[in-house]
Amino acid sequence: MSISKDGSRVLLQLQAEGAHRFVSIPFGGGAPTAVLNLLNRISSSDWGANGHLFLGQADRPVEVLRFPAAGGRPEILSTIPGGDFVPALPFPDGRVLMPFPLGDKMRLVVAGSGAAPHAFVETQEQTSSPFALAGDREVAFLIGPPARPSVAIASVSDGRILQRLGPLDGPVLSLAAAPGGNTLYYTSQAAVWEIQRAGGQPRRLRAGDYVAAHPAGGELLVQSNERDRYRLTRIRLDGGPEREIPLKGDLRLTLVPLASNAISRDGRIVATVSSPDSWFWQAGLIHPETGVITLLPLQMDGDINNAGWSTDGRIVATASAFRASIWQLRPIRP
Description:
Elements: E1 2-3, E2 9-16, E3 19-26, E4 33-38, E5 44-47, E6 53-59, E7 62-67, E8 75-80, E9 89-90, E10 96-102, E11 105-112, E12 115-119, E13 127-133, E14 138-143, E15 150-155, E16 161-165, E17 172-177, E18 183-188, E19 191-196, E20 203-207, E21 210-213, E22 219-225, E23 230-236, E24 243-244, E25 252-253, E26 269-274, E27 282-286, E28 293-295, E29 302-309, E30 315-321, E31 323-329
Antiparallel strand pairs: 1-2, 2-3, 3-4, 5-6, 6-31, 7-8, 7-30, 9-10, 10-11, 11-12, 13-14, 14-15, 15-16, 17-18, 18-19, 19-20, 21-22, 22-23, 23-24, 25-26, 26-27, 27-28, 29-30
């Protein structure tokens, strides 16, 4: 809402069925007058002198990006409508798996390789993240109601469901797989759990909010979200001692979940970090031994929502891009 410079009118923005309508209402009473109809989202508006109208337009589409570990200008693999913390999982063939709301349910879609995003699994059930590659040819994801989901194992090539595990108790926040995909790890009810594809009940391992598995095997990385900080802990699967990574410097972890593919083969960790020098969340590389965080210099404006390694050594991330412009509209005089 904004008031004209002479104080005689109020400008209101109304939204209905995806359209944005601006109407002018006299302060002294009277019928509203249509000023403008737009389809694009307007973030702010104000009257200028002589009846001119100024509009601020801001759009935050989610872009799926791919870039080398050295940073640079990212390649845009796909663009979808805006959302918070949208994850993306790169397949070995270059396609990307990500969640997308279709109708009243969440669905997993695949994008990339020159094709428009399309459903990954042909089912009427809800399919959603978290997800993780289970070996080179299979992928694990959630299927069914969020409060009591099962883990589905499907073929990467055609989305055919091969196995189901569960249902599991409580919402699942994170999912990872050991090399080969025979053991899965997930987080639920503030704990890390292990489940075998061969059968048996889930086994609680420890407390934690998100989990990633080392692609070389033998180790898990657990993110714990505490009141005053976010911690990363390396967990040895042979029963050896745990080791917290001593994060150093001005860069900080954010509340963005750790991706299942956050660890590279040489142990480097990619995560979303915040910097005192930028209002955007950025991608950072964390050294597993020293805890030093290095920013990845990316030529883009926006927030990194989620980042993980692809099998070719590059990084695939989703980002809320920032596109803004200001428009001046002049009234048409008779």
